[in-house]
Write a structure and sequence with these properties.
With 445 residues, the chain is an alpha/beta fold. It has 12 helices and 13 strands.
């Protein structure tokens, strides 16, 4: 897909009120490389039948001939018995090489409200974009075929989108209230990836990769043309762009059980995600991705969009150079009177307070008294990390070269401060002054 320089509402489409009704759906044709194979009616609450679907649940599949029938029938039964909206299940066959397409077509012929779309090329993002763009439903969702997420979370996921309260909704395995069963390796990878998103892309959502998401038709129409990725990074890119465009993201803690037979290539997926993070970061920092505000601001103003990583790094570097020079000057003055370690601690403490205050105002654009003391308290943790690095460097120098000159001491401290500065920036950006999207909503239910 191409990426235009800016995005706004489709021509003639009004902005929503505070709580709008169901929004008009996008109606572009099925994307290139996709074809509609079998389509049936929708599934209203209580009994199958035809009608305009409020919800379209997409299940992307690749070589799932064995597991597909049981999962689709279970989902179909749940929608018919537990959802108060007309709904459709769309199986997106992602260029399967086994009998998945034939099995899906048989399910569509047997179950009302099941449709099949076949794509000639692989890619979960490609499948979701093609089906969502062609859907006539008001709310578009997807879930993994293994149904790792408890289906009881589906109604809390889509209800805020149907009411117009939110624009996107995601299941989260990392928020309080979620119950997750999975191995330690996947847990560590997931948490590290989402920490990376918070530090590099200022992400306010907690779980980018949970295969349980929904979006309004209005949000899909505005955002899908911007999303370049066609694989696993599709979810992350969609969420980041939505946050930057001011859309409201609703989060639902889920019960989730890991699929032990998952065939996801973790190494290849991780590398592709890192490349995607770099591409989106570069696009936002350079101004190539300029997103118009899609949701009306609150009456008192929604505030500026989160600043880009590169511009923050530049301002942080300027503040850092000034505070480092002040730190070295204080250390030089105090060294002869207090000794190396006490002089280092005093100089670092004094400049750390000034550094936190300067970064709060200049780097992260925060004003006023609110949160100032909390920021200084949290900044002391970053100060402690810097003190440990510089004190350790001085201790190593004293043990290996006890007669080193003052110039050598300063050189060692400068090198230690480089590492301490990088760590400090990450702590300030991710924890002390976290840049959140304007409207990420947590659901504690």
């Amino acid at each position: 897909m191409t990426t235009p320089a800016s995005v706004d509402l489709p021509a003639g489409q009004p902005r929503p009120a505070a709580v709008p009704g169901p929004l008009p759906p996008p109606t572009p044709p099925v994307g290139p490389g996709a074809s509609l194979v079998v389509a049936a009616g929708t599934v209203p609450s209580g009994a199958p039948g035809a009608g305009h679907p409020v919800l379209d649940v997409v299940v992307p599949v690749f070589n799932e001939e064995a597991d597909l029938p049981g999962c689709v029938r279970r989902l179909h039964a749940f929608l018919a018995s537990s959802l108060p909206y007309p709904a459709r299940i769309t199986i997106a066959d992602n260029a399967s090489t086994d009998a998945t397409l034939a099995v899906a077509s048989a399910l569509a012929a047997d179950l009302p409200g099941v449709a099949v779309v076949h794509l000639d090329a692989k890619g979960r993002g490609r499948a979701l974009a093609a089906v969502w763009a062609a859907s006539d439903a008001d709310v578009l969702a997807y879930m993994d075929v293994d149904l790792s997420t408890d289906l009881a979370a589906l109604l809390p996921l889509v209800a805020p989108l149907v009411s117009g309260h939110s624009d996107l909704a995601i299941g989260t395995r990392l928020a309080r209230g979620a119950r997750v069963v999975r191995g330690p390796k996947r847990e560590v990878i997931s948490r590290c990836y989402n920490l990376l998103l918070r530090t590099t892309l200022s992400a306010g959502f907690t779980d980018a990769q949970c295969g349980f998401k929904a979006i309004s038709s209005r949000g899909a129409a505005a955002l899908l043309p911007l999303v370049e990725d066609t694989g696993w990074f599709f979810d992350t890119e969609l969420l980041v762009l939505a946050e930057r465009a001011g859309l409201r993201i609703h989060e639902v803690p889920v019960d989730w059980v890991d699929d032990p037979d998952s065939r996801v290539d973790i190494v290849a997926t991780a590398w592709a995600d890192l490349c995607g993070v770099w591409r989106v970061s570069r696009g936002l920092a350079s101004g190539r991705l300029q997103l118009a505000q899609l949701r009306d601001p609150l009456p008192d103003g929604a505030g500026p969009l989160p600043p880009g990583l590169v511009s923050q790094l530049v301002r942080f570097a300027v503040v850092g150079v000034a505070s480092t020079l002040a730190y070295l000057a204080l250390f030089w003055v105090l060294r002869g009177q207090l000794g190396a370690q006490p002089a280092n601690a005093v100089a670092l403490a004094v400049t750390a307070v000034a550094n936190t205050a300067a970064n709060r105002r200049l780097t992260f654009g925060l004003r006023g008294r609110s949160g100032r003391l909390r920021a200084q308290a949290q900044g002391l943790v970053a100060f402690g990390a810097g003190l440990a690095l510089t004190a350790g460097a001085l201790a190593v120098l004293a043990a290996t070269a006890p007669h080193a000159s003052r110039a050598v001491e300063l050189a060692v401290l400068v090198a230690a401060n480089v590492a301490a500065t990088l760590l400090r920036f990450l702590l300030l950006r991710a924890w002390v002054f976290p840049v959140r999207g304007p409207s990420t909503v947590k659901d504690a239910s």
